[in-house]
Amino acid sequence: MASNEPALDTPLPPHSLYGDVPGETESWEEWDPTEESVRPVRGRHRVAKQRGGLARSSTVLGVGVIAAVGAGGMATAQTKPPVSISLPDSISENLPDLGSLPGVGELVSHDSPDTPKTAAARADQKIAASPLTMTGLSTGEAEAGATDAGEALRARILQQAEQQKAGAIAEAKAAAQKAAAEKAAAEAKAKQDAAAAKAAAEKKAAEEAAAKKAEEERLAKLAASYSLPVGSYTLTSTFGEAGSMWSSGHHTGLDFAAPTGTPLKAIHSGTIKSAGWAGAYGYRTVITLDDGSELWYCHQSSLAVSVGQKVSTGDVIGRVGATGNVTGPHLHLEVHTPSGTGIDPMTWLQSKGLNP
């Protein structure tokens, strides 16, 4: 427990307060301040003469009073026993270690076993040893061995620069990875689209091939039930040709040139609608098919069927001739729809699987 220091044996001389330097033979009198002597002087620039004729202001007088009171207190403290100071346990237990407080640890002696030298205290001691160069250092930097605030600041700046550089590298890497992922996704999508387009094209080609095959099969089946009207022939005139030899101004059928007497066959099964002379057509036979279409066989040399007769595919219905308006023996074949409109026999025969 600390106690007040004992008062000085010799009282302080007044000249220590006022600055007077007495002679060696001059004696001092004890000055006992009273209420009258310490009363402040009223008014401005009013001074009082003291010993030796030296003027003193109220401020100097106040300083003397304070010094005298202090000296008296010190003298009184010599005669009083020390006073013990204690704190409750609840407060003393929670007080921090003085050695751990920055700037205070160096004021506490570490030689005592009750106050061990902590890391913070050692750091404070280090900073206190070089106060100019280590100003601004943190305790952690001092513990790490830093001795110069400039170098520590430089190290911090470099560390921040490295962190920023690392962050920029990480961002660039993330951006590159994102771009690579997007590129890979785009390539995968392109491949998927190409594969889908290829599959669609293959599917379309397969459908077209299947449709073509089905049409070929249908035509083959039709061809089994249809037949060309002449076995050996030469095509001489086609549908739609213009010329003065035809009364309509254009050719209305398909001509199969063959020798006179060449057999004429029923292209498809049907019923004989007419068989006889037809003017410019010469001897003509008309077969009505089941769908209402009509086949006209013209310029025959002879007829082999009669009206109302049923015929089947390939049956002989007459023979090639040169009767009517002709320039030589041939079969003039016309095809009419159920409504009576004449159409191209070539196209119609091809639709039935026949290729004249």
TrEMBL record:
Organism expressing this protein natively: Streptomyces mauvecolor
Molecular functions (GO terms): hydrolase activity
EC number: 3.4.24.-
Designated name of the protein: M23 family metallopeptidase
EC category: hydrolase
One Pfam family cited in the UniProt record for this chain: Peptidase_M23
InterPro entries membership: Cell_wall_metabolism_enzyme, Dup_hybrid_motif, M23ase_b-sheet_dom, PcsB-like
Superkingdom of origin organism: Bacteria
Keywords: Coiled coil, Hydrolase
Acidic residues composition-biased segments: 26-35
Domain M23ase beta-sheet core: 250-345
Record bears the keyword Transferase: no
Gene3D superfamilies from the UniProt entry: Glucose Permease (Domain IIA) (2.70.70.10)
Region (Disordered): 1-54
Residue ranges of coiled coil: 158-219
